[in-house]
Design brief:
With about 60 residues, this protein is α+β, with helices and mostly antiparallel strands. It has one domain. Strands 1-2-3 form a three-stranded mixed beta sheet, covered by helices on one side. A hairpin with a 2-residue loop joins strand 1 and strand 2. The mean pLDDT is about 90.
Length: about 60
Amino acid sequence: MIVGRNRLLFREIKSEKGVLTQAQLKWGGALMAGGGDWSVWRPSQMELVQATLTADPVD
């Protein structure tokens, strides 16, 4: 969970080959169903990670 800049992000951090467990998928689905911002970040997505963490939040 990442809190800041008027946002609440839920991120699962996995290796490139890491596989989400059924429990992680269930939690992610529940978070998204409730309007949460949930996704998985992998090392190859470092540009996305940096952009997400430094972007101005949408008001």
